[in-house]
Write a structure and sequence with these properties.
5-stranded mixed sheet; 23 strands; mainly beta
Length: 332
């Protein structure tokens, strides 16, 4: 995810009175919300180079154990839980009680506007987990932030601009945390999807996010697409935000053969292809089409013929690894 942040610990303490108005510091530069943070590939050929390779960790973690096939949970398409006011302070935050590794994702529905520009949610993790959250179904601009137990330090955030989906995927230790949904402009209802999945380690591959926000989009008119970025399961410095999963949406206006590769790895990242057949933005048991789970630094690849429609690609960390990557998509 781009345009997200991890403020430096101890130096960017955000005041409780208005924790979202301070500059958001990454350690390299100050990022403010930008309308250019979602790549839309509409030309015949698009190449996007993101963050510098100099940000790579000095000693990447490489998994050596065998990886199990990712088998999505059998997730029902439940209607959202409607969250009512007040929940616009840390003290009145809505309590999320369903965050247990292996549970189905939970969907909440809320509204923010000029009269109520902030919604807060509190959750507690009983073990180290991959925490996943997506803010979707926006009709105006809203952002999402992750806070520590005191609500004073912003650990991560997503602010893509416009009505684009927002997402955070981060490995968190056991403890209590807060989410803040903030109005950026206009009034909007929203869906907030949250889940926890098994965190990766040197001996366990872990499980990627089971949510499908559109973080990066590849348009139907594109004949080739390339984007370079990174996955930070364990950030090398406190000012780099964690990110265990990137999600790409591919739209096809006709049946095509799609060749996908993930290269430039310095640690173990994996790749999977999904079709969200019921459009609930959750990976249900029958929706994974293909996956590539080579070990170590080996490149990943998927080649398949797809019918017209929308598909999702997930690039994700295995064994708690952190690595730069280049995603290449070519159509035949």
């Amino acid at each position: 995810m781009e345009n997200c942040f991890n403020p430096a610990q101890g130096t960017n303490i955000l005041p409780i009175a208005d924790p979202l108005n301070a500059p958001l510091t990454t350690g390299l530069e100050t990022f403010l919300p930008s309308s250019s943070s979602l790549e839309l590939a509409s030309a015949a050929s698009v190449t996007i180079t993101a963050e510098p390779d100099s940000m790579l960790p000095e000693s990447p973690i490489i998994g050596t154990a065998s990886q199990p096939d990712i088998v999505p949970a059998d997730v029902p398409s439940n209607l959202p839980i409607v969250v009512t006011e007040p929940n616009n302070t840390f003290g009145t935050a809505y309590q999320i009680s369903s965050l247990i590794v292996g549970n189905a994702p939970t969907v909440f529905s809320g509204t923010i506007d000029d009269a109520d520009s902030l919604d807060y949610y509190q959750f507690t993790l009983s073990e180290t987990s991959n925490f996943n959250v997506a803010l979707t179904h926006l009709i105006a601009d809203a952002d999402i932030y992750l806070y520590n137990q005191d609500g004073r330090v912003a650990l991560n955030g997503s602010f893509r601009g416009g009505t684009r989906d927002e997402a955070i995927n981060q490995t968190l230790a056991a403890g209590t945390y807060y989410l803040g949904v903030r109005q950026s402009s206009g009034s909007t209802s929203y869906n907030l999807l949250v889940s926890t999945t098994l965190a990766g380690s040197i001996v366990a591959a872990g499980w990627p996010s089971n949510l499908l926000p559109t973080e990066f989009e590849v348009a139907a008119s594109t004949t080739s697409y390339s984007r370079s970025s990174w996955i930070w399961s364990t950030p090398p410095i406190p000012t780099v935000r964690g990110n265990t999963t990137d999600v790409y949406r591919i739209h096809l206006d006709a049946a095509r053969t799609v060749n996908i590769s993930l290269t430039g790895l310095v640690a173990d990242l994996d790749l999977r292809l999904i079709q969200d057949t019921n459009s609930n933005q959750i990976i249900d048991v029958t929706e994974q089409i293909n996956q590539s789970q080579n070990s170590g630094w080996d490149a990943e690849s998927i080649s398949t013929t797809l019918e017209a429609g929308d598909y999702y690609l997930q690039v994700y960390s295995a064994f708690g690894s952190s690595s730069a990557y280049t995603l290449n998509i070519a159509y035949v």
